[in-house]
């Protein structure tokens, strides 16, 4: 049987003045999760969504909220995001001290939600192998984090192979950045089983068809 691919549309490409409409659109079109990009203007150059917006989003969807923290000091924000309804909290390896990674994963789990760890394009997958056993998800960035609509970096996808070899069976391997029907195939062939897509889904004429084409 074909492995189930978790599709997580990134609302960074939605119309923020019509967020409820655009979230319902992907929910009705078969999305599995809602990907929320939190940016602080420090870890990445852009500023996007914070805790109050996630609280409002929770009220308008039943889909799990897949919250991608592109922020410095993520440990300070785990409790607030967990309390407003994040179901998966992913933080960046580059944003913390390596010595604190395990504690942060534990902190996320203490709220009964899933923990993800993300790496930027220049970070080697070998750096995070020791954490795989404690994680629910690894997020491999296939563009430099910060903006939607960038071009997929093929070298990043190759990292999946290394992670896949070491990954426990239930680890979710997610990719994010420049995902479309073509690049999705590359990633899933290496073993990714969760795809984030912003522009490809939201700028398509037919959202349902776009989501289907990623599976
Ligand atoms: C980029 C974000 C992505 C972004 C992806 O830093 O993490 O989630 O929305 O957008 P696309 O799919 O347009 O590359
Ligand atoms: Zn993201």
Which outline best applies? globular
Task: Write out the distinct hetero groups bound to the structure.
Answer: D-xylitol-5-phosphate, zinc ion
* Number of helical regions: 8
Distance between the termini: 13 Å
CA radius of gyration is 16 Å
What number of structural domains do the residues give? 1
CATH topology: TIM Barrel
Q: How does the major sheet shape up?
A: 8 strands, parallel
- Side-by-side strand order of the widest sheet: 1-8-7-6-5-4-3-2
Task: Give the class from helix and strand content and strand pairing.
Answer: alpha/beta
Helix content: 25-40%
Identify the CATH homologous superfamily: Aldolase class I
> N-to-C SSE series?
EHEHEHEHEEHEHEHH
CATH architecture classification: Alpha-Beta Barrel
Strand fraction: 15-25%
- How many strands in all? 8
Q: Please identify the top-level CATH class.
A: Alpha Beta
Mean pLDDT: 97
Low-confidence segments, given as residue ranges, are none
What does this protein look like?
With 215 residues, the protein is of the alpha/beta class. The chain has a single domain (6-214), classed as Aldolase class I (TIM Barrel, Alpha-Beta Barrel), CATH 3.20.20.70. The chain is built from eight helices and eight strands, in the order βαβαβαβαββαβαβαα. The chain has helices at 19-28, 51-60, 78-83, 101-109, 154-166, 181-190, 199-202, 207-214, and strands spanning 6-9, 34-39, 65-70, 88-92, 114-119, 137-141, 172-176, 194-197. An eight-stranded parallel sheet has the order 1-8-7-6-5-4-3-2. Strand 2 (34-39), helix 2 (51-60) and strand 3 form a beta-alpha-beta unit. The longest helix has 13 residues, at 154-166. The two termini are 13 Å apart. Zinc ion (ZN) binds next to strand 2.
